[in-house]
Amino acid sequence: MNSSRAAALPSGATLPMVQEANDDDGAASLPPEAAGTVRFEVRLDNFSGPFDLLLSLISKHELDITEIALARVTDEFIGYIRALSAAGDDFSLDEASEFLVIAATLLDLKAARLLPSGEVEDEEDIALLEARDLLFARLLQYKAFKEIARFLGERLVEESRRFPRDVALEPGYAAMMPELSWRMSPPDFAALAAKALEPREPAPTEVGIGHLHAPAVSVREQADILGHRLQEHGTLSFRQLTADADSLLVVVARFLALLEMFRDTVITLDQAAPLGELTVRWSAGEREWDALSISEEYDVDVST
Question: What highest taxon heads this organism's lineage (predicted)?
Answer without folding.
Answer: Bacteria
